[in-house]
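Quick question: what would this complex look like in 3D?
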Amino acid sequence: MTQVARAGERRRLTGLAGFYAVVMRTAVQTQFQYRTANYLYMVGMIAEPVIYLVVWSAVAEAQGGSVEGITAGEFAAYYIVWTLVRNMNIVFTPYGWEGRIRKGELSGMLVRPVHPIHYDLAYFAGWKFVVILLWVPIAAVLSLVFRPTFDVSALELLVFLVAIWGAYLIRSMLLWALGMVTFWTTRVSALYELYFTAELLLSGRLLPLALLPGWAMTIADWTPFQYTFGFPIEVLAGDLSTGELWTGLGLQAVWTAIGALLVAVVWRFGIRRYSAVGN
Amino acid sequence: MDDDGGNGPGSGGQPAIRVRELRKTFRVAEREAGLRASVRSLIKRAHRDVDAVAGVSFDVAPGEVVGFLGANGAGKTTTLKMLSGLLHPSSGEIAVLGHTPARREREFLRRITLVMGNRNQLQWDIPALDSFEMNRAVYRIPEAEFRRNRDELVELLEIGDLVRKPVRNLSLGERMKAETAAALLHRPQVLFLDEPTIGLDVTAQKRIRAFLAEYNRRTGASILLTSHYMADVQALCNRVVVIDAGQVLYDGGLRALTTRFSAHQTITVGLPEGGADLSGYGEVLESTPDGRTSLRVPKTQAGAVAARLLADHQVSDLTIEDPPIEDVIEQVFADRSAVGAR
Amino acid sequence: MAAPSRAPRDAQALRLVATFLRMGVQTELQYRANVVFSVLQSVVAVATSLAVLGLVFSHTDALGGWSGEELLVVMGVYVLMGGVIRSVIQPNMQQLMEDVQQGTLDFVLTKPADGQLLVSARRFELWQAIDVVLGAVLVAVAVVRLDRPVSVIEVLGFLTALVLGAVTIYSFWLLLTIGAFWIVRVDSLVELFDGMYQAGRWPVSVYPGWLRIGFTFLVPLAFAITVPAEALTGRASGWLLLGAAAFTVALSVLTRVLWRVGLRHYSGASA
């Protein structure tokens, strides 16, 4: 009995792995066609970290070289790694749900025997490979202009390579759960803004978390946000101890699990609602 | 007139689709026009329950092709959505291949397909062939079977060249063909087709139609089809279910529909001497210079009128016909459209 | 000849704009949850800006020669101008982009009124305009907290610079959007602008030379935000304002010309 169940389970996994492979390949193919648009988008995104970097460099300069021990070169390293982490944690936007529901795309997904989140996870994961390729020259230019100081060990590099995917997973789950609010009400942009603001301040996106006042840092510790921005960035650009590296990865796993649970629960109620009212 | 094809399930065995007393009620917000009403609706919003589907029952036998007809808002799409598991019925029973659609079991989803003519399921930026590949993964179609089905569909639809081009470069007709192939790769046993030929030109419509007939013949799949084009229905369906205001108005053979709903017949008569005024016999629909005249007469009097025509004039030929099915359907809806349910 | 027929046509166009405005308000009123959320959203955004300012000034006393209070003026103008952009400029321009892509611009062009005016005034997102109020409040608070009195001349200069800035930003957006007549996908340009606009939170003098030039002439943030703030904090000379005016006029004329060229191109392409 258990053996049969296990065999069934294994077949399902291979099936799902096959699905991921096909979708990721499709994403690479499609997004590579749109490389120009992708590039424009990435260049536009650079404005944000450059502004932060310029401001904090100006502050560091006014303070005689460093803020809370962070030098201009370290700020540069932080915000250059930021650009990769940011590109890694772009996932299906919650704003996309309204269109999905209104245009009936969701109906198309629902009549297929695969949970739609797998499609999004696979598609955006595939896209990341194009993004990383396009990112390299941008990082090179930024490094030439802003002169970052790096001190990276092999372990840090390894943890970083895992942590950026952890960031991707956590943010995918959270934003999927958030986007599903659209099942209940359409005009949700304000709610999303609220979420993104909290994320901006508490994730390390706006500034290294060390620059937050103590009480805000405590709040940040209880939210998942820093595991989608600050943690992966600091693995590479910061100065984390080996213990902190492993704890960070562990907490990423915990938040991924919580996110997945959240998605499962909201999805269940959301679909119940969707199939009660249609679109 | 006993070509009243397949009313109800075929002899023996379970029906492929079984629907009993199906009902779907939506709660809609009532909104009045104007600025003041908008402001008022901020405070308090009025609701109203609307029956989109109000007690529909029918069966579809395995291998049967059934046309599902009704005016816009009659409840067709709502019913199709309930049958494919997208909507939960408010009450009533549905069994599709023995499954309850609303549970959306994978096994069920693997055995059906839903094609909506105005919606795109293929990936826009890549060739259809790659989208097929994705469907293979989605439906877990074994490799050999996938290849066989794909090649067969590509051949039947004659899209061998098209499937290699990015979908965005295809015309609507071409895309719909590719779309249809993608939807059938997993060999579904039940097809829900919502306006599968909408917006296509006549040639493409014919092509899709012929293909669906062939698919049905080869696989024995059941098809439930909605269409605004009566040609689709005539070519594919022996049986139609007409719904209006969420209720079944008619369920039976296509030909019998004509008999039942058309109170008139058309008499076409040829008079070699020509020129006679026949308006005394019935409503003149058409009169050609070579002496042929079409008359619309109440069905019950058709025989008598024909006899009188033959007696009064020298007649070269005379036919009595039922009106075209489009006109009949139009009439069915025209009679009921005042209800205007949604 | 043209003069007598011109006046009623303008009046008609204004009536049309007023109708659009009313419809926009009506649409917005239908979404009651949005009222609460929009207000909340604006308050959160402003609070965020203040938090950022607070964070920076918890680590320093001055930034590029601006004190905290003076930077509050910049922030206020940034919020205010953001409100103008999101309530009027951006919705209209996005609608225009969509219309160009889907060929529905024809419906607008066949109306008997000035096309540029119509496409610029069709939509109005009421709740986004809350930012205009909030921005003004921020500026007022900052002015009170400044340790030097503000003269009437400075206030007038500020208001003038503000109007010029709004026109500049509008022209700039329309220029971007007109690009849609040639390149179909300009969505990424919008993203680009959104990213750049963020830079306006800070006076352009904070940025290194090459960026400062870009934020002055390529993306006219300097004219839209920094110059008004400078006028109110006694940094702007009459010459600066004159320069801003000249720039605004030049940009508006350029936009008008390119709009005409773009329309010709559009009609040619869609025929």
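Answer marked as accepted. The radius of gyration of chain C is 20 Å.
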